[in-house]
Design goal:
alpha+beta; eight-stranded antiparallel β-sheet
Length: about 160
């Protein structure tokens, strides 16, 4: 079902098997380990080579306040603490999230499909409860953010 408040990334190819990607993403503490790599200057330079360097610096700054548990990630925002919690796991195909403490309702899901031996495809969807006025103000930024998040998730070293 499509909704005009759905923001869907393009399909991303990941050079790791579906079950390997799922195992990494279904426990959000694995992302905490990746965030700690942002303190490594060599890793930061490598990331700047793959992404816009100003976006890398912005991401590093935002990730400093992120807290992880197995089932959620929380971040401090101008409107207070917000949490994205896993609400459903459909191994190895899908992980569903829901916002908590957000001024707008947000659902997100990561869909995974196998792509031959040792590779997979991923698509990220975000559904936000937006009225028409707010949608017009933020839809291009939200669509861009969904695509950037999907791109970052596709670049994670899942085998590490």
């Amino acid at each position: 079902m499509s909704d005009n408040n759905d923001f869907v990334s393009s399909v991303k190819l990941i050079p790791y098997a579906q079950d390997v990607v799922y195992d990494k993403l279904q426990d959000l503490r694995h992302l905490e380990n990746l965030c700690s790599r942002l303190k490594d200057p060599a890793f930061v330079e490598q990331a700047k080579g793959q992404f816009d360097s100003s976006k890398v610096e912005e991401a590093i700054k935002r990730l400093e306040s992120v807290r992880f548990t197995q089932d959620s990630l929380s971040v401090d925002s101008p409107v207070g603490a917000m949490t994205l919690a896993i609400v459903d796991r459909d191994e190895p195909k899908c992980i569903k999230f829901e916002s908590q403490g957000s001024p707008i309702g947000i659902n997100m899901w990561i869909q995974l499909l196998p792509d031959g031996d040792g590779a997979s495809k991923m698509r990220l969807t975000v559904r936000a409860e937006l009225n028409m006025f707010i949608r017009k103000m933020i839809e291009s930024k939200l669509a861009e953010g969904v695509e950037q998040l999907a791109e970052m998730l596709s670049k994670i070293p899942y085998g590490a």
